[in-house]
Amino acid sequence: MEAKNLGEALYGTPQLDWAEITTRLDVGVAQGPGAGGPDRHTCWLATIDRDGGPHLTGIGALWVDGSFWFETGERTRKGRNLARDPRCSLSVATAAFDLVVEGEAQRVTEPDVVADMAARWAAEGWPAEVDDTGQALTATYSAPSAGPPPWLVYRLTVHSATALATVEPGGATRWTF
């Protein structure tokens, strides 16, 4: 891993510690009102449209074992974009820092992993269950932008990350993995 302090030369701010960022992410980023961040956490996913332009949408993501995980319908715009080009970015704001990660999203179909993620989303308040195939999710409801079930599960493998501290002493750091 390489780290670059983006604020030292101009502002004299310290380099942020990736371990502190991941320790905070390990606590979770609940998305209900009043749950944190700027009143709540919202994860934003940017994918690449067919014409090369960006597509940005809010998603329900979880940080698990050093990666962000999310789900979407196969026919949604983001689902179609990821099938064509897995490169994407995800961002989230916490009370202590804003974070953007860049990498590739891979669809996960292993039944035990899909079941584990369903249980994790259910523990967060979304009643996700594994569908009949064992490779996707279903539930009584989801965000309208997720499209109809089944919802495919994705793991975002992070290639780089940039964090901007929002509390003293400040700082901005970019990591390449």
Which fold name corresponds to the CATH topology? Pnp Oxidase, Chain A
Into which percent range does the helicity of residues fall? 10-25%
Along the chain, the helix and strand elements come as EHHEEEEHEEHEEEE
How many separate structural domains? Answer: 1
CATH architecture: Roll
Give a count of the beta strands, DSSP E runs of length 2 or more: 11
Task: Find the structural class using helix and strand composition.
Answer: alpha+beta
Q: Biggest β-sheet, characterized?
A: 9 strands, antiparallel
N- and C-termini, Cα separation:
5 Å
Number of helices: 4
Oligomer: single chain
Tell me what the structure shows.
This protein is α+β, with helices and mostly antiparallel strands and 177 residues long. It has a single domain, classed as Pnp Oxidase, Chain A (Roll), CATH 2.30.110. Helices cover 20% and strands 39% of the residues. The chain has helices spanning 8-11, 18-27, 77-84, 111-123, and strands at 2-5, 43-48, 54-59, 62-64, 67-73, 87-93, 97-108, 129-130, 137-138, 151-165, 172-176. Strands 1, 2, 3, 4, 5, 6, 7, 10 and 11 form a nine-stranded antiparallel beta sheet that branches. Strands 8-9 form a two-stranded antiparallel ribbon. The longest helix has 13 residues, at 111-123. It is globular. 28% of the residues are buried.
